[in-house]
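Contributing: when you submit paired examples, paste them exactly as shown. First protein:
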Amino acid sequence: MSRQKPTKSSSKFGHLPKTEQFWANINIFEYAMKSPDNYHIELCMKLLEEKFSFGNGHGYTQKDLEQLSSYIEEHTGYYISLSTLKRVWKGTYKTQPQIATLNALVEVLGYKNWQDFKIQHQKAKLEEEKGSKRSKWPFYLAAPIVAIILTVIVFSFGESGASNVKIEGPVSFSADKTVAKGVPNTFIFEYDLSHVVADSFFIQQSWNAWRKEKIDPKKEVYASTYYESGFHRAKLIANDEVVATQAVHILSDGWEPHVYYSEADDIFIDFKGERFVADGRLHLPIELLKKRGLDTSRYFMSRISHSDDYGVSSNNFGFKTKIKVEKALESNCPWVNVLLITTEHVFSAKLVRNGCETGASYKLGEIYKSGKDNNLSKLGTDLYEWNDLEIKVEGKKATILLNGKEAYSENYQEDLGNIVGLSYVFEGTGSIDFVELTDEKGKVVFQDDFEVYE
């Protein structure tokens, strides 16, 4: 997808000829660079571009920012609009981005918040400053300026990085797994790109851009290994355009816990061969985390998932669970996000500690609400104690109940398909005491009370 040129209204210098427009924009950016936070903003952008392979290494595209917005929303509960991300990447914000925006951006990189990110990278910044005293422009300013100049050149002198994809006939894309359930699981992708003209081709395991692998368009088969169960939509990509998608459903072999320092990491800690169900609950105690090599001094999160063909429509179902967060981190605002994965998207309810309701959120059908611009005080609770959470849907009317009391209700329109996965994401670690999923008739299709009978 090609970048769009800014309209004249985007700058007070829009009436100038292109050459003068270019230098006027440079002056604007030089002024913006005087902010002490700009070094860290540019670094944050660079790390995100590297992590999510923006533009296949040739600059960002709108699709990259759209994917990043979706990723942040689904994995942190924060919503950052596409227009906000564009302003950040184009450097057109009049003041520094809001701290909530910066917090969300660095959280997907594995940092607690913006302040934590700045502190951890301050040493590198000082070293760069020390090594560049002989330069009129310090290196830590010169590099971003060069990047900005290149960006302005692109927008001032015409479009660049256009996808130039030509589809001259049918495109086929299919997949078959090598193992019935569980991970690791290799999928054999078969494709035919003989009717597609482009510079480069990729298979992306899911919507996450960092799960993208380059393929040879002259061949017809590519094998890719998945290390997490769940429902994914693999993408066949030409340049930066998706030319075909393929559903990939990996059934889990029971409950599957993973621990991450960051959701964007492609490396995680699993618990194969370990016992994490005991005393009537699923639990990842600190002792077990340390045994598996977790650095408990760092920020981390746990994701516990179960994926199956439950045969339950997301238009009519019942879900009940009992959960709590464990005191594994020195966190002022602990949280847990409970997600029901469907063939089209997710339902979710993010609970937070009392007083931290700006971090709460829910998604019911296509309706998403954040505590930043909605009153979600009813999703605030004492997470260090057991909480009963219920989500029930009757004819696309969804209701969230917390500890037996109705919290929020929404009528949605879109059909999100069948439920194919259950997922719990804890800040730090947590425990699950009970899970139950029922169909439209109230029949229990999945239940686990974590009692072990030997």
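Second protein:
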Amino acid sequence: MGVVGPHDLVDDVAAVCEEQPGVSTLRLDYDHESQAPAIVEAHAASVEGWLFTGIVPYMLCRDAEALTRPAAFVDYSGATLLNALVRLQHQGEDVTRLSIDTLPAADVDATFGEAGLPAGELRMHPYRPGMTSQKAIAFHRRSPAHTVITCLSSVHEALRGERHVLRLVPSVHSVRVALRQLVLTAEGQVQEDAQIALGLVEVANEEGLLREATALGGTLAAFRGGTHLLVTTRGPLHDATGGFTGLPMLARLAEQNDAVRVGFGLGRSAAEAESLARRALAKARRIGPVAAVLSLRADADIVLESVATTPAGGQSLSVIARRVGLSVPTLEKLLQARAAAGGEPLTTREIADRLAVQQRTARRMLHRLELAGLAERTGNLTSGSSGRPLTLYRLTLQHPDPGHRSGEPA
């Protein structure tokens, strides 16, 4: 796990993480939170997950689209905030007159309610896109009579010579909660990447087929009835197909064959992968003489194009619908949801609400779009609370008509 945060917090958070059996950490500290995206991009290949010591560096990396691995942040509300209030009371500070940055207002109100404290005179500056330490400092300075609670080391350094400032630091409990959720997400990703991928290839002239199998990180064997069996795993197949969008080997083999049909199956066992590969090959036969299909669990089939990733804008919605197994009206609704969000990432819950479907249905839709290169996971909203983390997706699906404004009827 890559632990990212200010230099005085990283070691303590990493030490708590390393108490978990099987977890090792890469400790990456910064002088200012604005450095976090560059740090993450430089070390992305070295970790299986990211744990940020607070929400601000996490959101900066998410907004910079630097997160390619599962990520979480340590929550400072709840027990952490309550502990700070107790400390301030012991120091004789008025905890009903505070200026608080970064934390969600609802979480602050809930903590004060649980402590039986009035929240009417609190000043709050929750995190929002575009928030900087300079803006937080200016916010606090507008109310000099209030004691400051900040989550940012840069704000603490700027204000501590002017007034009473308490900087929140993650509690051991909050670190353990965030780590537990992150480990579950990261393990799921690793297991997914290691899924068995079996390909059934129908081709008369097998020249070059072994080379194609090697490029996919796999092995080749004769199957039956002139069909060849290609064995690999999900990770190499995902990379070679541009995120399950195009199968370049299809075009290369078609140069020497009138008919090339490929069916890939992804499964948790060889038997499951083979069954899915048979289904995929049967669908490829129905499509035409040159076709490739990837079949997944939950009856999801993706048509792989014969070239590398094709820009979504170059395909009609009907073609995209055929590739991902969703209806054109559903794609239109997703385009409208993307437009309503201003292109910002959406959680699975938000997609479910906008499409009026259950969350598991939304997750299935988004998974299909992700495999087709039309959506990407940008992280998880893991705030330390109980329950399943909400995955954030950025929809890269575009309307093929450049003059069409998403949100209007097609």
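If you have annotations for the second protein, write them as plain sentences, like these:
The chain has four domains: 2-74+173-190, 79-168, 195-304, 317-395.
The radius of gyration is 25 Å.
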